[in-house]
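CORE FACILITY INTAKE
Project code: CF-77B
Contact: R.S. (postdoc)
Sample description: multi-component assembly, two entities in total
Requested service: structural model of the whole complex
Turnaround: standard
Below are the sequence entries exactly as provided by the requester. Do not edit them.
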Amino acid sequence: MLDVCLMGTGGSMPKPDRWLSSLLMRYEGKSLVIDCGEGTQLALKESGFNFKPVGLLLITHFHADHVSGLPGFLLSMGNEGRTEPLMIAGPRGISHIVRSLCVVAPGLPFEVHIAELSHTGGSFVWEDFEITAFEADHRCPCLGYKVHLPRKGKFDVEKAKARGVPLKAWKRLQDGEEVEIDGVTFTPGDVLGPPRRGLTVCYATDTRPKDTITEAARGADLLVLEGMFGSDKQERAKEAMHMTMVEAAKIAAEAEPRALWLTHFSPSVPDPSVYIDEAREIFPGAVAGVDGMRAALSFD
Amino acid sequence: MLDVCLMGTGGSMPKPDRWLSSLLMRYEGKSLVIDCGEGTQLALKESGFNFKPVGLLLITHFHADHVSGLPGFLLSMGNEGRTEPLMIAGPRGISHIVRSLCVVAPGLPFEVHIAELSHTGGSFVWEDFEITAFEADHRCPCLGYKVHLPRKGKFDVEKAKARGVPLKAWKRLQDGEEVEIDGVTFTPGDVLGPPRRGLTVCYATDTRPKDTITEAARGADLLVLEGMFGSDKQERAKEAMHMTMVEAAKIAAEAEPRALWLTHFSPSVPDPSVYIDEAREIFPGAVAGVDGMRAALSFD
């Protein structure tokens, strides 16, 4: 079960009734968080989570509403007793940003490992997750993230027998290890069927529509996109390099995810749901996000 | 009328029900704010204020809970259309802190003027306010602030007549100008009685008790002090270089302010009012602050 929580849904500035956009994903006791604006540490608490399982922060870009909550977030992690390293990944330059912001957070009781990603994207593995960053189209370098949880093939008894795999190696092979017995090396492929459909969550905010987003989102279980304005503010969205809800819905209509959550609403939009119908005409499953919205995604 | 609002009362980290410690003072359409931790921009909104009148930020020290809200605060000021310069004053090093934090707030549409104060204090005038910084006793250099609103003497008709001040100069002299008529220079002192009692608010958090605080607080209209713990955590307060509510009350008992508000409560103290009786045994007027608490101070 992959738990997903949209902890905040605001853009530009936090509001008393809306935290800044941030997404948490949790799988088997390990959590990652995308973006960390002012107040994200409070959004996390209000959504009922703790800091301890959070091992990875993914930052989309360096506008304050996506990153200025970092020092407080890290200090609160430290106050909660963290000693395990934390990884922070973001566009090239993230080291400088973290170092600058953390001038007010010296002496953290844990290490911070920083991964600088190319402005055009990149991939890495963290715990069970395969993370792919892709290029967005904003006023500054900005990344979207595809977070994929792969699923191994089913154990295939007939295959294991046919390949002469000794019984005592079955469990370890099923768990993904290679096993050598009497000079013969067996691999998980000797006992497993073909990989099964995993789970994919795709996240992009602060961007104009772009084919990299559509590609990353293709067939995702959950697509989280900014829908900063209604279509009555189409021109403003273009100027500010943001998307309307209708533009987000068009991406979804092409990429065909199983679900679409809209987020990163302008402070000038007090109730985003008033625009949801125009998005649903294009992608019927579109949902206007609200702070703390959750989903539990299961493998097929 | 001097409006004072304790916008937040928390120490260390913001909590869902408690913003970080911050004080706003407003007089004749000009406001100043002391400290700006994560979420202070929201605390200001929740207390019913706007950014526009705020022209001065006073920073006590550089721990994140007192300063990490700066980039968001400044950006929101800009989003509200500010073009007038903003002044930020704090301990020596404040320029570096502001510059580092504002790496995520480039291109502000207004100038930021920074005043670096000595670690042992300093004085300056801003609008109608006389600001005096004084040394606190924390784990890092930390300042308290005395904010004084002076009050001119009463207009004295007999004195004006006795000194032969022409009638046409009376109004300008009363307003504080010097006036020259036929080669004779008149000063406000020619028409005003002795200065009257003004209004004074004194603020100190993140400190052990220290005589500089007592001196600054002497006879203040309002003294705002940290009372981070109850006396059951006296040792912890000492170690962390903070004050208990009883220690704050002892300062008040000596300095004799007209009112004492306690603030900067530890996250480990969910309801500070449970400790207020032990503080009131020492200073009967002690009040456990709550977010948004206000007072309107009037000249005698």
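Facility notes:
- The two ends of chain B are 11 Å apart (CA to CA).
- Chain B is about 25% helix and 30% strand.
Invoice: internal transfer
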